[in-house]
Every structure is written in C-alpha cells, then in structure tokens.
Amino acid sequence: MISKHQTPTRSGFHSKTNANEITNGIDLNEKIAIVTGGYSGIGLETTRELVATGAKVIIPAKRTEVAVQNLEGIVSKENIVEMDLGNLNSVKKFTEDFKESFGKLDLLINNAGIMACPETRIGNGWESQFAVNHIGHFLLTKELMDSMAENDNAKFVSLSSSAHSLTGILWDDIHFQNNPYDKWMAYGQSKTASSLIAIEFHRRMVDKGVSGFSVHPGGILTPLQRHLQKEEMVALGWMDQNGSPSEMAKNFFKTTSQGASTTLWCATSSSLSGIGGVFCEDCDIAKRKNEVDDSLQRYFGVADWAVDTEEASKLWDVTEKMLAS
C-alpha cells in the first residue's frame, strides 16, 4: 500500500532553495539531533544549519580527525563521537553511550553512505553498500527509537537517492551471493532500503507522535563520488570530456546547501505535522513515477517499491533476522 500523502504539497520551496531559506525563523534550542556523515558534503551543510537554529548536534564519525577539522567552529569536539556504520559493535556502543548521556532524541538524520564501490564483504558476508547504507543505519535507528518515543514530535529522516529507481529489494539475492556483483544495482537496492526504513519507522512510531521521512537530496557532486573515474562520470552524463560539469549537471545539479534543503524541510517544517511515511524531493513530497514525464523518471519521482508499506515491513523483518544470525 502507498500512503495517500505521497503527493506534492506545494510547499512554496523548490529544487534550488538554499538551506538557510528553510531554517529561517526556525528555533531548535534545547533540541538534540544526530546526523550521520554530518561532517562532509550535504551532511556538513545540514549540521551547519541545525546548529544555526540552536540545536545540539551529535556527529557519529568514522574518521573523527577529519570530522573535527571540517566542523571546527561549528560543532564542539566532545559532540563528535567515533562510530563506524560497517561495524555493528561500534554502532551499539555509540547508541549506548548516547542514551547514557542524553535523555531524549529530537532528530535522527541518516545521511552517511557509500556509493558504487568495488565489491566488498563485511559483517556476516554482507555486501558492503547494503550493510553500511542500510544495516548499520537500521541498527542505529532501532536502538534509538525509545529515545525518540519519549519525545513528542521527534523526526527521523533517511537519505535515499534517485538511484532507488534502479531496483527494488533483490529478495532472492540481497547480498549478491548467487549473481555477479553489480555496483549500481547494489547501490540502488541500498537506497530503496534507505527509503523503506523510513516508511516502516513511521508506521511503528506515528502513534507515539514521531514521524519518518525518506529524502532524495538531488544531484550534487560531493565526496560520495570518490569511487568513480572521470570516464564513468562522463558516461553518466555528469561531466564533459574536459572534466567540467555537463549541461545536464548545470541544469539539474545542486550546491551542497541546496542538497541539504529537503532534509531540513522534512526535519523542521510545521506544514508536515501529521504527515510522514513519505518520500520527498526538492523541498516537497515527491510525485510517484507514473506522474512524472517519461524522460525525467530516472531522476525524479518515487518508485512504488520504495514507499510500499508491505515491502517496508518485510525489509524490517528480514533485516532483524540478518542481525540475529
């Protein structure tokens, strides 16, 4: 089933709205937020704006020395805490320490991720993109749900991608154990999972006054592309042969500030009161794919498989079984 709310709201914002336009006039004093990957790319911009609204932002970081350097003057060093999404013991330690230090959590933003990387196995033989982008974030989210439930109007935002349109969950071979590894299918699957976790989270938490949203931030050139060669970005249409942004990229790609805007809109907008369990893009709730022009469906709109409540519940149960195995 697809939520009846999966339809644009005419928010008044647009694809090139800057982050500070979203947070203008917002007061998050005494609010506590966690932003994974909050020290690089759009995560850094998300952190910057949340701090500007008065929120206390905790940054779990795999590379704490890089985080300290990038966040100098924005987040104090004691709020940067070591955590590796690819190491479940590390995730568990982070959540235990957080719960010991703070009585509540107002905002959880699952922003970190890896993209189109070479085949790597971590954990229990898991494919790394699914493991980092979904399983690690799933454990983090699940462990923090009680801290959010104690806090009415808390919000969870999970960053997906237009790449979710490449594939739904590959139920018969999630970890590419039977079929050859395809880095883009693996990434697309992980980003579908990043959407579905928000859909099921919302179903489980809405009665506690807590909402969940999935977000496509838009096309942005950030360190996420570090595994891609120039030739591949040319083939994807993101760059021209000189290494400069292509015409398509100039028209559709966003700055990091613009890329953070939809996350911040979901996290702070009063217009979303009573709404959740939806996929958002360009500072509004996204259209379904069948409502988008055929030529733009690769980049805009949400595939039904990424917002289907039955798929979301199934993925939640399957992931719990992976963690228990």
Automatic annotation (TrEMBL):
Pfam families in the cross-refs: adh_short
Record-linked PANTHER family: RETINOL DEHYDROGENASE, RETINOL DEHYDROGENASE 11
Family: Belongs to the short-chain dehydrogenases/reductases (SDR) family.
Record key words, sorted: Oxidoreductase
InterPro entries associated with the record: NAD(P)-bd_dom_sf, Sc_DH/Rdtase_CS, SDR_fam
Name of the protein this chain belongs to: Probable oxidoreductase
Single annotated GO MF: oxidoreductase activity
Entry coiled-coil feature ranges: none
